[in-house]
Write a structure and sequence with these properties.
Order of helices and strands: EHEEHE
Strand content: 25-35%
Distance between the termini: 18 Å
Strand order of the largest sheet: 2-3-1-4
Largest sheet: 4 strands, antiparallel
Structural class: alpha+beta
Radius of gyration: 12 Å
Number of strands: 4
Number of helices: 2
Amino acid sequence: MRVTVVYGFDSGQLANRFLNRLKSGEVPGVKAHLHRGSDSVAAVYSLTAKDGFDATCSQLDDLAATLGGREITP
């Protein structure tokens, strides 16, 4: 299953820092791009947990929080 999570930031600079960290592979298996402007980022990954739990979303949340970001997925 493909999952998309969108994160909002207070500035485009913070959003780009988050985007660059994702593109560098800090959270494996995640592809990311700017989403509807310069201050939000969409992270896309495949849910692959076979035991019922996948830590990818938690890792994304933690990384975004270090840059003042928050999940804004509707």
